[in-house]
Amino acid sequence: YIKEYKKKTKTSAKLFSKSAKLHVNGVSHNIRFYEPYPFVVKKSAGKNLVDVDSNKYTDYWMGHWALILGHGPNSVKKNLQKQIEKSWMYGTVNEQTIQLSELISKAVPVAEKIRYVTSGTEATMYAVRLARSVSGRKVIAKIDGGWHGYTSDLLKSVNWPFSESESSGVVNEEQIVSIPYNDLEKSLSILKKYSKDLAGVIIEPVLGGGGCIPADSEYLKGVQEFCKKNNSLFILDEIVTGFRFRFGCLYPTMKLDPDIVTLGKIVGGGLSIGVMCGKKEIMEAADTTGKKKSERSYVGGGTFSANPASMVAGYSTLDYLKSKKTVYSKINDLGKFARKEIGKAFDGKVAVTGKGSLFMTHFLQNGISEIRNSADAAKCNGGLLAKYHFKMIAHDGIFFLPGKLGAISNAHSKEDIKKIVKASEEFTC
Ligand code: PMP
Predict the structure, then answer these.
(1) In what order do the strands lie in the sheet containing 41-45?
(2) Cα 426 to averaged position of ligand 1 atoms, centre (Å)
(3) Separation of 14 CA from ligand 1 center, angstroms?
(4) Does 216 score more than 70 pLDDT?
(5) In this entry, which stretches build a coiled coil (predicted)?
(6) How many angstroms does the Cα of residue 121 sit away from the middle of ligand 1?
């Protein structure tokens, strides 16, 4: 397949060699590189990416899973165009932000106060900082293999299935503790050891980058209960899961009561965003207006926080999702179909994990039959998964970032999923 790929991506090869001279790894996010070189994209529309050699791919990477309505949906495009005519940067309070926040705060009960940043990484960074300043403690617990962006406070070499060491250059490793997903007994025993110093716990309700693995609600409830008793903050990272399965977050369906929730991806409608929201009394710890210096906690923002382009793209996406609730039933059903049929295509050799419109194929080996956490995912054959995805890029016109999970958007159809199933049947492992 490498030969086939090289033959059809000659312009990409030339451009990528230029890119490799100019950029670290030739890319601007480590995960975007794959062998022999990533194709260079020319344009995108609906479910498709088109590369500079005019090859068309049905996309399941979907802008790091941000594009729930597909690439360039009209409902977002027309509002964005109108906004661009007015301005794409104010750097001051604007009405577009208020409109997006009104939608978010109605749909996400815990969002009593909101702060916008421009990436998920910053949102989790500030969530952790707030947990530390509110609790007066230093240690943060995270899930082994959980991914919250390149926030230095949340990187540690753990059982991370898809990379060896993420923590080079991180100075406070001793203040980060890992707990195993979906193993309440072990998690609680670790948390108890750190209880006096534990500022908070941060968890994704569906592990995204760490293997596309849903959490048991009993697991999350158990960790939450520990946090409440221990006066540690319970933080849910819903950057992937927020507005992905329903209009709102996943946590209310599990009857959880987090202190802080982080959002991103979908709520920016394809433009840069990060959101930290939470209970008033906690978020207000960071409200500096009228407080004495000694009483202030700081969470930040930046040059591009709440820029009107991101706010309008986010608002238009959520407004569409709110008015067309069938989007969720459609893409959730397609996800269910994909998990079932891809599993069948491999005749028991894989586990297809996920929830709703998210799915990921794990090639089973080492006695693993079920994927419950990143340690299980790490024991599967990640190399084979990358080959399977690469074969689809080179041969079938289907794009998954090799080794990563797929996200179905409103632009996909059942016929598209059937093509993945066919490509799976043809893949010899
Ligand atoms: N949290 C989760 C759960 C994520 O999946 C990601 C990114 N994939 C982030 C945080 C970081 O977001 P960003 O890439 O926008 O910084």
Answers:
(1) 41-45, 48-51, 56-59, 398-399
(2) 33
(3) 30
(4) yes
(5) none
(6) 6
* Pair of tokens at residue 167: 């923590």
* Local structure of 35: helix, strand or coil: coil
Query: Which residues' Cβ are closer than 6 Å to ligand 1?
Result: 64, 119-121, 124, 147-149, 204, 208-209, 237, 239-240, 264, 274
Q: Is the peptide bond before 161 cis (omega within 30 degrees of 0)?
A: no
Could you give all domains of the chain from N- to C-terminal order, each with its CATH number? 2-60+325-426 (3.90.1150.10), 75-323 (3.40.640.10)
Closest by CA position to 375, among listed 134, 75, 145, 111: 145
- The least confident of 135-149, 170-184, 328-342, 370-384 is 170-184
Within 10 A of 429 (CB to CB), how many other CB atoms are there? 12
How far away, in angstroms, is 148 Cα from ligand 1 center?
5
> Which neighbouring-strand residues pair with 58?
48, 398
Tokens 């969720």 belong to 328
Q: What is the CA radius of gyration of the chain?
A: 21
What global pTM score does this model have? Answer: 0.97
Distance CA 100, CA 306 (A): 10
Record the tokens describing residue 91, joined without a space.
């750097």
351-370 per-position pLDDT tens digit: 999 999 999 999 999 999 99
- Section 244-256 average pLDDT: 98
Q: Report the separation in Å between the CA atom of 367 and the middle of ligand 1, taken as the mean of its atom positions.
A: 31
Q: Rounded to the nearest 5°, which phi and psi values hold at 155?
A: -110, 130
* pLDDT higher than 90, residue 49: yes
In this prediction, residues 371-393 reach a mean pLDDT of 95
More confident residue, 196 or 290: 196
Percentage helix, strand, coil for the chain under 3-state DSSP, each rounded to 5: 45, 15, 40
User: Of ligand 1's atoms, which has the minimum distance to the CA of residue 264?
Assistant: 15
CA gap 409, 331 in Å, rounded: 6
Q: Which tens digit of pLDDT belongs to each residue from 252-311?
A: 999 999 999 999 999 999 999 999 999 999 999 888 887 887 777 778 899 999 999 999
In the chain, % of residues over pLDDT 70: 97
DSSP symbols for 235-264: EEE-TTTTTTSSSS-SGGGGT---SEEEEE
Quick one: which atom of ligand 1 is closest to the CA of 120? Answer: 12
Adjacency order of strands within the sheet including 406-407: 350-355, 358-363, 406-407
The pair phi, psi for residue 348, each rounded to 5°, is 85, 0
